[in-house]
């Protein structure tokens, strides 16, 4: 049995009379990839903001490695051991910093590599791991495509040797061929480094490739959670079923049949 | 079947940069054609050039709408074509609508410009919104865009585009910003209205899943050029161009057994400013031979389709 690494317990957040999330509980276990899925407005982002301390929940707790996240020491440790990759690779990298500075910053801040030469060597290795090379060290984000920027963001996140990677829609803004590259990189990194990954996404086809287990959010509440096989082969919640039934299939005959079924069930 | 829109050797230049390089495309009445490609492939620039939306770009070639070449029309004549015979909807319904104007006025505007009375225009706006599945359409004419959800706003956009009964609708990523369940409804509505009114639709998208369900034909663009065109049946059974194959293979699918890795196309899409000599795709192509880097392939007809590749 894998041990629990990051646990949300009864998270609730209200904005005025609007309840963004209510009683959201789930656990990211060591070494697994957990998908957090749902449509816009389902509460994915609020849940992530509560998990990483950007928003204070009205009720509920977050625990990391068996301890509630309370007090400076606990948060300090969590912020080093949990890293994030964001959706928009055009907004999440400082345009005035070189790749070497962006990826090396965490190494410096956390005192992992204290010398500039040591950092440079380490950053070069990291870039290699995500499919970039040493020639990219002194370039600025503007000279990279969206997919390359997302690789830089992944290199930055894994630089400080985290145990947890929280990826908030990391491939939603990318073209399909590049999306596939980044999904593969995430998967390889997760396995090589033994990372636990929380993968937030709305695209159920991508999630299926990457995630061992899924949590499905619907209007701020958990509709269903289970293993990949349970969710895709035998979904229980009507909401999960309707989400799955709406995923388009790149095959005209299958797609016609799928859409026909949808029309029938709408009657 | 005659073409309602025939594009011949279309070029789009921004400054001295050729963004779209010699595109041919034909839309027949009631036909649904998808134009696909990655960001930077020139698909959106093509759509905008057909309507001549950007005054700062130079459009060359011919765009035949019936017996008129839109490229040669004056701006004033073009204004009459836009929104009456040739309509367009955009990706983001929250920025394409004016937040300060009532929805009914925005849907009715194309009719008002053409001299329809306020009362008639409002009545027809309500009818159009109703056809597009907006609940209590007549009452909601006085609402503002922020009172609508993303999917409902896209229906409002569609209503404004379709209210004058255009012959051609150009839809640029119309559902990309929407959740899948909403996306499906919006696409079904476009399909239904286009069929009922005999409108030809040019769908610009990067999502091949949508193309499979929506389009009759698909044209693939790479670095500003069309590299392949086929019926959807032929394309999805096996694209003719290595780029089309690469795109299709990169799509994660829920209908297939899981594989260890997703197939990818190596490298990144080239910008039109850095188009390599020969075939633009050759640096990323696993089937490339020496000829591909020296000589640009021309489009040749194969069966009912076209492909530009030396290795076909």
UniProtKB/TrEMBL annotation, chain A:
Pfam family, any one:
oligo_HPY
Can you give the residue ranges of the ABC transporter domain?
A: 6-244
* UniProt keywords, alphabetically: ATP-binding, Nucleotide-binding, Transport
Q: Which domain of life is it from?
A: Bacteria
Gene3D superfamilies xref list = P-loop containing nucleotide triphosphate hydrolases
Q: Which InterPro entries match?
A: AAA+_ATPase (IPR003593), ABC_transp_ATP-bind (IPR050319), ABC_transporter-like_ATP-bd (IPR003439), ABC_transporter-like_CS (IPR017871), Oligopep_ABC_C (IPR013563), P-loop_NTPase (IPR027417), PhnK (IPR012700)
GO MF term list: ATP binding; ATP hydrolysis activity
Q: Which SUPFAM superfamilies does the UniProt entry name for this protein?
A: P-loop containing nucleoside triphosphate hydrolases
Family classification: Belongs to the ABC transporter superfamily.
Which PANTHER family does the record cross-reference, listed alphabetically? Answer: D,D-DIPEPTIDE TRANSPORT ATP-BINDING PROTEIN DDPF-RELATED, TRANSPORT ATP-BINDING PROTEIN
Q: What is this protein called?
A: Oligopeptide transport system ATP-binding protein
Give the organism, scientific name. Actinoplanes lutulentus
UniProtKB/TrEMBL annotation, chain B:
Annotated InterPro entries: AAA+_ATPase (IPR003593), ABC_Ni/Peptide_Import (IPR050388), ABC_transporter-like_ATP-bd (IPR003439), ABC_transporter-like_CS (IPR017871), Oligopep_ABC_C (IPR013563), P-loop_NTPase (IPR027417)
* Gene3D superfamilies given in the database record: P-loop containing nucleotide triphosphate hydrolases
Kindly state which keywords UniProt assigns to this record, in alphabetical order. ATP-binding, Cell membrane, Membrane, Nucleotide-binding, Transport
| Gene Ontology annotations of biological process type | peptide transport
Q: Does the keyword field hold Protein biosynthesis?
A: no
Per UniProt, what is one GO molecular function of this protein?
A: ATP hydrolysis activity
Similarity annotation: Belongs to the ABC transporter superfamily.
According to UniProt, the name of this protein is Peptide/nickel transport system ATP-binding protein
What lineage is this protein's organism placed in? Bacteria, Bacillati, Actinomycetota, Actinomycetes, Micromonosporales
